[in-house]
Specification:
single chain, globular, 12 strands, 3 domains, CBS-domain
């Protein structure tokens, strides 16, 4: 019997189980995930399709708080910002949507789209003073969602309203962070890279003002050479593995830890590993950095 013929019974067996599952009332998602895993192992689903289907099923278990950009990392339009300052923020951050804060900088009162600012620039003959005077005309009303909002429902709302950003509020109505439709989609399909994301081959990218963006795949030895640190590479080859060990769990985006004189914030991560880290000098040193991490408290992140 040929290899192709010998493999047919197992494939038919899996397809029969799949047919039986969907012909009956489905009560257990774990059963579906198990079948998808078997299909992946039997090479009936490639790696990308498997993870997308897995992500689509598991996304309903996640909430806005799990993937939001924390308030401390939000790039916002502050009271009194002139158009020139706003343009600088757009260029530096490469974002397309920006929360607009109220007069005392405690609440979000609107959302500014970069494309709306371009339209205003043309209508104002590219005069900064005229643009600043008319900025309120192009600020859109914000959409607020609770931290507990499930991602599958949030994605549905994004699609129905054609809105791409929501402000996440805590139980007291305060701003906890923000979430975008791209954030939700990345939980399903994985990271969506665009032309503004740093290239993976640039392991350490200087952002200015003492800030760095570091690939989690950077060798610990290379990290030590660049930052003049002495982190041990006996157990972990990459800085991502080292930082994950210090956390004691796989951290999510926005989680922070201080190691030696350096403060690490998870910039990008998926359900398998850290991808990018934001690194700044903390000014604090621990005598045994790999054993005594400083986890940022909620107050430090606000």
């Amino acid at each position: 019997m040929s290899d192709d013929q010998s493999s047919q019974p197992s494939k038919r067996s899996w397809l029969e189980k799949l047919s039986d599952t969907f012909s009956a009332e489905i009560r257990d998602r774990d059963q579906i995930l198990q079948l998808l895993q078997e299909a992946h192992e039997n090479e009936l689903l490639d790696n990308s399709a498997y993870h997308i289907m897995q992500g689509a099923i598991e996304v309903s278990d996640q909430h806005a708080r799990d993937i939001m950009v924390p308030r401390s990392q939000m790039v916002v339009i502050e009271p009194g910002d002139a158009v020139t300052a706003i343009l600088d923020k757009i260029v530096e951050s490469s974002h397309s949507r920006f929360p607009v804060m109220n007069d005392d900088n405690t609440a979000v009162v609107g959302i500014l789209l970069a494309k709306d600012l371009l339209r205003l620039a043309r209508e104002s003959d590219f005069n900064p003073e005229r643009m600043t005077a008319r900025i309120d005309e192009v600020i859109r009303p914000p959409v607020f969602v609770p931290e507990s909002k499930r991602l599958n429902r949030l994605l549905r709302d994004f699609r129905e309203t054609r809105n791409h950003m929501a402000i996440v509020v805590d139980e007291y109505g305060g701003v906890a962070g923000l979430v975008t439709i791209e954030d939700v989609l990345e939980e399903i399909v994985g990271d969506i890279e665009d032309e503004h994301d740093p290239l993976e081959e640039e392991d350490i990218q200087e952002l200015g003002d003492g800030r760095y963006r570091v690939s989690a795949l950077t060798e610990v030895e290379d990290f030590n050479d660049f930052f003049r640190t002495e982190l041990s590479d006996d157990e972990f080859d990459t800085i991502g593995g080292y930082v994950t060990h210090v956390f004691g769990h796989l951290p999510k985006r926005g989680e922070a830890v201080t190691i030696a004189d350096w403060h690490f914030v998870v910039h990008t991560a998926d359900d398998r590993r850290i991808r990018l880290l934001d690194v700044t000098r903390s000014g604090r040193r621990h005598t045994a950095p790999e054993l005594t991490p400083h986890l940022a408290s909620p107050e430090e992140r606000l």
